[in-house]
Design goal:
This protein has a four-stranded parallel sheet with strand order 2-1-3-4, sandwiched between helices. Helix 1 links the parallel strand 1 and strand 2. Helix content is 39%, strand content 14%.
Length: 150
């Protein structure tokens, strides 16, 4: 079983959106028996909080299932438990590497670097635009599913 961890700053907007979009994609493509995903935060600010209402709204709009959950923080111990760590932006990548101490197995990637366009996933915490974030997440998750199922 391949295990993917999506990571953002607070684990209430982008990383849970990516987690549930990705899980929906792998289920629809018939890969949920061999690939799974979770999400976490690099900060402690939102630990224990549920998914942001804006993320819930966008997942509902597109018919993507999710469950009530509590934000959790990424830990050094996670490095041995997951095959791939997918950050939403450059700051997430820096913080992930700080938490892990290093990335000797090259497990850390930025989501949109898996696409032709690159860049950071738009942060709706600042923009309020969950639709743009959703488009970024879908593009990145499509590329990730393609990469993992080749």
């Amino acid at each position: 079983m391949k295990k993917v961890m999506f990571v953002c700053h607070g684990n209430i907007c982008r990383s849970p959106m990516a987690e549930y979009v990705f899980l929906d994609m792998i289920k629809r493509r018939g890969f949920s028996e061999i690939i799974t995903a979770a999400s976490s935060a690099t900060s402690t600010e939102e630990i224990g909080n549920d998914i942001h209402y804006g993320t819930k709204r966008i997942l509902d709009k597109y018919g993507i299932s999710y469950r009530r959950r509590e934000a959790v923080q990424l830990s050094r111990l996670d490095y041995s438990k997951y095959d791939l760590f997918v950050g939403m932006d450059s700051a997430n990548i820096r913080n992930m590497l700080r938490i892990f101490g290093a990335d000797p197995e090259n497990k850390v990637v930025k989501l949109l670097d898996l696409t032709d366009r690159g860049g950071d996933v738009a942060d709706p915490w600042y923009t309020g635009n969950f639709e743009v974030t959703y488009r970024d997440v879908v593009d990145g998750c499509n590329a990730l599913v393609d990469l993992l199922t080749k």
